[in-house]
Design a protein that fits this description.
Blueprint: E1 5-10, E2 17-22, E3 30-33, H1 34-38, H2 46-68, E4 75-87, E5 90-103, H3 109-122, H4 124-128, E6 132-139
Parallel strand pairs: 5-6
Antiparallel strand pairs: 1-2, 2-3, 4-5
Helix pairs in contact: 2-3
Enzyme class: oxidoreductase
Keywords: Oxidoreductase, Peroxidase
Pfam family, one: OsmC
Amino acid sequence: MIRKARAVWRGAGRDGNGDLTTDSGVLSSTPYSFRTRFENEPGTNPEELIAAAHAGCFTMALAFQLQNAGFTADELATEAAVTVEQEAGGFTIKKSALTLRAKVPGVDRAKFEELARTAEKTCPVSKVLNAEITMDFELA
């Protein structure tokens, strides 16, 4: 399985701009720039996309962990907060903090935490991130 995305950039780093497109069409010439990345101008940025990928990957991995253990979630809602810090050599993604709110009938807290920790460690996006990963959860 291969998934593809393309980036096109025009101009200098700080004053230029670009767009991102995915084969699925979810992103189609979606604009990004220095301002959308570092100054909170509307638009997307690579770190936001990594956060979305991590939240989606982890949540689906947990759904499969739950299914394999005989549980079905009513809802799994995950936020991933990616922390970017400036270092001498540029910027580095230092952390991805997962915050999960879950409604899973019939599962106790200990079993749920075991399954969530497994999903946190085994989802492909977690495996590729060279960053600290934390997970906080609330089980309703």
